[in-house]
Amino acid sequence: AGPYTINYSTNSPCDYDAWASAGEAAATAAGFNLNQYSHRVYVFPKKNTCGWAGLGTIGGNPSRAWIAYCDLLDVYAHELGHNVDMHHSSTDMNNDGVSDCEYCDVSDFMGYGGVGPRQVNAPHKEQMGWLPASKVVLATGNTTLSLAPLELYPGTTSLPQALKIAKPNTGEYYYFSYRRKLGFDSSLGTDYADKANIHRYQGSGAIQTFFLGGLSTGQSFSDSANGLTVTQTASTADFVTLQVNFGSVACAPAVPTITMSPASQGGQAGATLSYTVQVVNNDSTSCSSSTFTVTPTAPTGWSASAPGSVTLAPGQSTTLTVVFTSTTGSTGPNSVGVNVTGIEPLHNTSANATYVVNTPDTSAPTAPKNLAGSSKAGRVQLTWTASSDNVSVSAYRVWRNGNLIGQTTATSYSDGGVNSGAAYSYFVTAMDGAGNESVPSTTVTVTVSKGGGKPR
Ligand SMILES: [Ca+2]
Ligand SMILES: [Ca+2]
Ligand SMILES: [Zn+2]
Question: Distance from the CA of 208 to the center of ligand 3, in angstroms?
Fold first, then answer.
């Protein structure tokens, strides 16, 4: 629309908002429905008092851009770039996270204006969706790959056009791309042309991108904090080859996982119980092996023992046995555990389990009842009625003439160690698992019948 003449002087103060309103009023009067325009650009004479070449909102609806240098193509591109959410293309040549110069990556029109037409850098192309996802390779392990020039229309090359690598210590990404003097980039400067360009960017959003430098064949980029090295190994007119090496990734120690089992078990006072302790070294794979010291923790007076220390590689796990012995006076549930310490303070952790001291069984079973005896074929057959116990009856003992002659879990017994015609007295006692014995049953006397089988 326009041009329209508005009632301001080229010498009047730089009231760009008022100029935009006056311009919009003029366009509306001329029949434009401005509601149809979500991106609005106000271009005014180069003779003005503003002191800048252009100004643009980052995003916005409508987005707005003011062009003070109406004859500079890249100023339009720059301000419209802000309007679609791009921030400035900056430099940080020493990669210390501190911007060296906000507008100095001039491989991208989001740097200084007045440089001439050019493309945008790799992070901006990804941010804008101007590179299909298939053209951006995220390297997570050692790899060697070739990139086609970033200037090519993606459909015209089978190669990827950007290499992206996470920068874990800041949550940013590195971007590598191959820039050549093609098309709008025909005037690309020597810092960029025919080199693998290195950028750093958050990965999304209206945040500055940072140019870190360019590689020639044989040169490497290193980030020692993240153990990353990227070496340019070859370049032709059609591609650059980069070798990515994560070889010396920094060690990231982590809290080991300690589990103790069983979670709970019981034993008598004074009993020694075993627990299995599993130790998992969760350090990152680049860490060296670590030694974990396992120290048992138990109530005062108890004794405990553990193997002491275990040495594990990252990711490795082992189980060891830790034993605890309660004191004779202990009762109820008690916490037992292990403290684990390692090389790193991060390694210090612990685990616990429960040792329940059972109340001892001091109550004997009831006496067996209804003891009855009979004799047949030279043997004595005894039967009785089962006893009961607060826990359980474990066995019956059979006594003949006051001597223990056998033990059974049944409620009957057959005694063959007897002489025909003789008389014997028997009683039976019941036992429980704790060794408590009942009082004797009543006594029965049995006279052994004459031999078995038919008489000869
Ligand atoms: Ca810097
Ligand atoms: Ca008992
Ligand atoms: Zn800007």
Answer: 10
